[in-house]
Amino acid sequence: MPLLFPSQDTLHDVFLPAVPFGRRSSPPQTQSNSVSSKRTPLQARTELYPTLSAVDDAKNKANALSAEAAKEFEKASAAAQAKAGKIELYSSKYYAACTFGGLLACGLTHTAVTPLDLVKCRRQVDSKMYTGNFQAWGKIGRAEGFRGVYTGWSPTFFGYSAQGAFKYGGYEFFKKFYSDLAGAENAAKYKTSIFLVASASAEFIADIALCPFEAVKVRMQTTLPPFAKGTFDGISQITAKEGFGGLYKGLYPLWGRQIPYTMMKFASFETIVGMIYDRLPGQKSDYGKGAQTAVSFTGGYLAGILCAIVSHPADVMVSKLNANRQAGEGFGAAMGRIYKDIGFGGLWNGLPVRIVMIGTLTGLQWMIYDYFKIFMGLPTTGGAAPPEKR
């Protein structure tokens, strides 16, 4: 009954792929070799082995570098904490650390996105100047070189470093101050109101520090060629022509832009981060440094999108006033004249660019700020409030 049993060649063809690679003996030279030599879906693609090995090597090296970086971070963090001494929550050392963290967060990030800010400001002043970001950078690069793309970086760095210091340090101070005034029960019940009032108070002061540098930055970015060589040259030129008040003629619209922006930035960040931790398994303290800073970046980016939308009309006005306000012209008159020229639609020029810029900025700022707090042995912002140590 030969038809009831498969032939030897058939069995060979079926079971050959299951033989481990490297242990397969050379099949006899038969007619079935042409069939059995074809790769089946179960056979490994041996030509990919070197690629897979290279990927594994790269992963191992990356893991080793990551572990080494984490070790160096821990060493540097321990040294910094030993030098600073124990930092109690809500102590003067705590507010000083938050102030320096804010300086780093805002100064570095705003300076990094100067090319985006440059195009945004120029398009706000003249919407027909460029058709798009890449076209703008190409045109600026050809006309002014690579340095031209970073026009205004110096006043940006000084101004937003000062603003970040007062904003973040002030926010931590006023949040505790208003919480104590309200009492523990009301502070928990009306925590969003506490966030809003604390951030508005901090930004009111921070903008006084920012305003002179913002005036120089906007003028450098919106005049061709730039009216000054750098920050202090710009300050001296403005004060020589317009007096000290020339540095602060954009203060009211700056408050109008920055205070709602910061209120949205801090209150929405705290709310979003709280919602994230509420939906994650376990508690905030269960997550490591990397996970907590990732939550900070996510919450900051989402908060930044809301900030950009809320504050954009005032941002346009700041750019217009610093660039086009006439000598001796009153604030209200200048606002009315500019609005008549650009209309309601003009208040939204450059919004998509600003959403990208502010979303990225805000996410990175919160990540840097909270990473610095971790570096100094402090809890990150948002989520469950840390217990007060007495």
Automatic annotation (TrEMBL):
Main location: mitochondrion
One biological process term in Gene Ontology: copper ion transmembrane transport
Keyword Membrane: yes
GO cellular component, one term: mitochondrial inner membrane
Example of a GO MF term: phosphate transmembrane transporter activity
Residue windows of the Solcar repeats: 93-177, 190-275, 291-375
Domain of life: Eukaryota
Subcellular location: Mitochondrion inner membrane
Pfam families per UniProt: Mito_carr
Parts forming coiled coils: none
Keywords for the protein's UniProt record, in alphabetical order: Membrane, Mitochondrion, Mitochondrion inner membrane, Repeat, Transmembrane, Transmembrane helix, Transport
Residues covered by region (Disordered): 22-41
Compositional bias ranges of the Polar residues kind: 26-40
Recorded topology in the membrane: Multi-pass membrane protein
Record bears the keyword Transport: yes
Family: Belongs to the mitochondrial carrier (TC 2.A.29) family.
Reported function: Transport of phosphate groups from the cytosol to the mitochondrial matrix.
Name of the protein described by the UniProt record: Mitochondrial phosphate carrier protein
Organism listed in the record: Lachnellula suecica
